[in-house]
Amino acid sequence: MKREREELGPLVSTPLPADQDADSQAMTPEEVDAELAEIKRRIEDLGPVNEYAAIQYEEEKAELDRLKAQHTDISQAAESLTTIIREIDEEARSRFETTFRALREEFRRTFNFFFPGGEADLRLENPDEPFNSPIQITARPEGKQLKRLSQLSDGERALLGIALLFAFYGVRPAPFIFIDELDAPLDDANVLKFASYLSHIKERIQVFVITHNKRTMEKADTIYGITMEEPGVSKIISVRLKDVKRHHVAVEEA
To answer: Which one of 20-24, 63-67, 144-148 scores highest in mean pLDDT?
Structure first.
């Protein structure tokens, strides 16, 4: 029994309370051996003592603290990004609505130029979701009922599209514009309207028009022609209509 006590060391050297010590003194040697064997078995079940447990604990705790700090930083960054995105969405929506209102007004004016006495409008089908909403275009040429775009004739749709295009330029004017055969689908009457509008805006915008229509050319200040006198070599010829008209008048007076 002495040997077992020495092996267990401090586990059995701690004094027991008086009542437990009295019970242990009443135990037989066999009972003491059995109790000691049970204690040893429990100690063995615990496995070997990890001498580095305290160090590992501190390392794991430091890693946990680092991850918590990262989580806090990421959470704060996510909240900041959410705020920025919300502010951008609000600003974008405000600008879109302002521009759309201006476009509606400008479209009504340009449409009325091409269709005197007529009415036209642009409407969002879903105003609550302006970025995803289809835009409905309605028009009523003078003397006709209000129609959607699909109900207009080909000529009316072409002229309406031109009116909408120039409405965009009216809202966000540029110093110059290029137009490539925009008058091609128009009949003679509508070509005159188109050419008249170019004359109307050329005082504030420099307009470059590619066209084969003589009525459109008549409204130009300068005409440029591209010829190919020999294969692979292009030549530009320019004519100022004012000079031509002045020369024509001089010839008639002579």
So the answer is: 63-67
Protein fold of 66-172: Rossmann fold (3.40.50)
CATH of domain 173-253: 3.40.50.300
Topology match between the domains 66-172 and 173-253:
yes
Question: Which tens digits make up the pLDDT trace of 182-222?
Answer: 999 898 889 999 999 998 888 888 999 999 998 898 888 88
Six-digit token string for 82: 């959410």
Domain extents for the chain?
Answer: 66-172, 173-253
Which residues on neighbouring strands pair with residue 208, listed in sequence order? 178
The DSSP H or E segment spanning 131 is: none
Encode pLDDT of 96-105 as tens digits. Answer: 999 999 999 9
Rounded distance between C-alpha atoms, residue 114 and residue 159, angstroms: 7
**What 8-state DSSP symbol labels residue 27?**
S
Q: How confident is the model at residue 11 (pLDDT cuts 50, 70, 90)?
A: very low
Q: What residues does 223 pair with on adjacent strands?
A: 239
Quote the tokens at residue 128: 């609550």
Are 138 and 187 in contact by the 8 Å Cβ rule? The answer is: no
pLDDT of residue 126: 93
Measured in whole angstroms, the distance separating CA 248 from the mean position of its chain's CA atoms is 57
Angle 245-248-253 from CA coordinates, rounded to 5°? 125
- d(Cα 235, Cα 225) in Å, to the nearest integer? 8
Task: Indicate the SS3 state at residue 146.
Answer: coil
